[in-house]
Amino acid sequence: MSTDLQDFRAEIRQWLDREAPTDWRSAATHDAFVESQRAWFRKLVAAGYAVPHWPERWPGGGRTLLEQKIIYEELSRADAPRLLLPFVSTYHAYATIGECGTQEQQERYLHAILDGETWCQGFSEPNAGSDLAAIRTKAVRDGDHYVVTGQKIWSTMAQYADMCLLLVRTSTEGAKQAGMTYLLMDMDSPGVTVRPIHQIQGDEEFAEIFLDEVRVPVDQRVGAEGAGWAVAQATLASERGLTLMELSYRMRGALTRIARQLTEVGRADDRGALRDLGALKIRIDAVCALADQFLRKRMNDEEQIGDASIVKLAYARCLRAYADLGVRFAGLDGQFHAPITFGDLNSGNWMADFMNSYAWTIAGGSDEVQRNIIAERMLGMPREPKSWTAEVAA
Amino acid sequence: MSEMRQTLEDSARKVFPNWEAARDASDAWAQVAQLGWFMVGVPEKIGGLGLGDEGLAIIFAELGRALVPGPVLTQFLVIEALVAGAPFEERDGLLERAMSGEIMTASLAIGGRSSEAVMDADKASHILLRREDVVALISQDGAQVKARETWDVSRRLFDVAVVDDAQRYVVARGQKAAQLNDRLDTLLCIALAGDALGGARAALGLTLDHLKGRSQFDRPLAMFQALKHRVADLKMMIDTADAFYADRTSQSLTALEAGELKNFCCAVYRDTVEDAIQLHGGVGLTTEYAIHRFFKRAFLNCALGGDADYWNERAGRAAMAESQAKA
After folding, report:
1. Number of domains in chain A
2. For residue B81, which of A72, A209, A333, B10 sits 20 to 30 Å off, Cα-Cα?
3. What is the pLDDT of residues A144-162, one digit of tens each?
4. A388 within a domain of the structure (yes/no)
């Protein structure tokens, strides 16, 4: 590694030694966790480490791939909290508005993100999950506004968001994808109601959003009317790559939790257990290599259709295997309730980790959807005929 | 893709477009020697091509893809022992003969258990003897060799007993022997990992061809989602192995790192062929279809070079030590 990069690593390590919060694991409520996220994001922005993946004209942007990798490796090493609250803002909102937004929209929203304005994503609906194009939330044009009515679900931290990336239906004519439009909605508009969802592990990371004749100005539309599906692809593509690399390395670092668990239960010399630990260690190393390779491909514009599905599926399955082994080694102890650690997928609270791992096997395109993409688009296996409802109707 | 990779893969695919092209062991051997593959890992100053482990890694995967038979992997081990060991008077001559294709063999077991799984010992001029404190090349007439029939017919394995007064060239002794044994284990594991990766890709390809070509219930098997998902999982694991292999073989590895790689790639190969037979259905159980050849080689690979339990346990102990060091 070059001296420059070594210096850069030393610089960020020193900064983290000084500034990284150490008390974030003890947040007793989701609200307290969110507050700690806001404070941590402010510090990262000020130091220039918050948005290394943004272009150079932004403070802290324009980092090379290797520099970004170093930042995430050091964050993971320092056991600093992941950025969850500003995640949608700095990845999804940034990518969508940066790639497809007007100059005006970019001026208005991107600066605000660095000032702490947070975004949520309003894509999924109760009847449009894996089949996203089936959304029904309706937007009707009324002068220079759209009037939006419907319901969104699985929106991460929507109860804390200032703005929403909203996918709506403006037409029911023709293909399902063709009638979709992309809007940027103020969360404090009249008619918006947010209800947090109580999750099985005790968190409230997701929320439902109810929309009752919400007025959204037409100049807050991204892309043309009816072009929402294409804009949504830019949003969805933004969260892979760096995120998966960061998460893979964090899981690798958290392997020590399983090793400690094994010691705690007095099985440090149990050959069967050691073999399972070893197999997991090897698998995580392999997934880290895959995430690295994917990021490199993306940066070099060599990414192929399906690559993102492969890396997401590989990480999600490995994360499940991680939690699974932890639960097994914890035995009965693991079945007694312990307070959860907000924002950590590899916390060592094994039942909570196991339940949290579904966030990656279901959200952002479930494992089953990824497998279809891999089979049909990478391996050329033919699609099934049109849906049975269409055939029955015909 | 690097130029070296392109060149090596292109020539491999021209000579061995598929497993059938490599079916005849003695023809395949002559082809491999002619391609200059035995020179790939040898430094230029002693007559090789100097492409290192990275070059070898590309060849290992090609050998696995085409199920190349014969004692190719062991030839690489002997060549490496001659290169990495202490030079002796006859060394350069022996190395030259080995690079040009004179069969010299070794065991495909790791560590000191070198009396079993010796490839083509009946055809070799020399056999590499590996003990903890000494590594030596003995002439074949100083050994008693006994063939053992394997399920995988692409490889012929022998038990070897060395006659006490057999003529021998000592390659390394004492501490140097331990280092060389480590290096040979590393190379063996990289070779088996590459063989597994290449084989897994090819086995997946055959399975896809079958699923796309055969119809039941008026549709190609490849249209059934239940089967798509199984194939997608295999593809995901093979791509993961691929990235892991590329990453690790681009650096210099310890025996444990290579063993971990071997373990992962061989497990992926094994899982692939297990499902491949099932997805072929009845014809997967006939010798008319090629998939059983990959199946048998995959299982043999798992048993060679240290098995899954051995490497997983070592990796587990290393993870425990790493965690204690962090605490």
Report:
1. 3
2. B10
3. 999 999 999 999 999 999 9
4. no
Please determine, for residue B51, whether its predicted confidence score (pLDDT) is greater than 60. Answer: yes
Extract long-range pairs of B21-24: CB within 8 Å, 24+ residues apart: B21/B66, B22/B66, B22/B67, B22/B68, B22/B69, B23/B69
Is the domain of A262 the same as that of A366? yes
pLDDT of A16-32, one tens digit each? 999 999 888 888 898 99
SS3 for B226-263, per residue? HHHHHHHHHHHHHHHHHHHHHHHCCCCCCHHHHHHHHH
pLDDT the model gives residue A392? 57
Say yes or no: A215 and A256 in one domain.
no
Instruction: Tell me: do A286 and A364 sit in the same domain.
Output: yes
Phi then psi for residue A145, to 5 deg, are: -130, 160
A239 assigned to active site: yes
Q: Each residue of B73-110: pLDDT tens digit?
A: 999 999 999 999 989 999 999 999 999 999 999 999 98
Residues A289 and A371 in one domain: yes
CB–CB contact A382 B211 (8 Å):
no
Contact across the interface for A279 and B223, Cβ inside 8 Å:
no
CATH 1.20.140.10 fits B178-320, yes or no: yes
ipTM of the complex: 0.95
Q: Is the pLDDT of residue A242 over 70?
A: yes
Mutation to test the A interface, candidates B229, B239, B249, B268, most A Cβ within 10 Å? B239
Yes or no, beta carbons of B320 and A263 under 8 Å apart? yes
Q: Are B290 and B19 in contact (CB under 8 A)?
A: yes
pLDDT tens column, A333-355: 999 998 888 888 888 999 999 99
- Structural domain boundaries enclosing A213: 118-226
* A254 & A370 share domain: yes
Query: Could you give the residue ranges of the DSSP H alpha helices within chain A?
Result: 3-19, 30-47, 65-77, 87, 94-100, 103-114, 228-237, 242-253, 255-264, 271-299, 307-330, 350-362, 367-373, 388-393
Contacts of B244 in chain A (CB under 8 A): 285-286, 289-290
- A199 and A301: one domain? no
List chain A residues with CB under 8 Å of B323: 255-256, 259-260
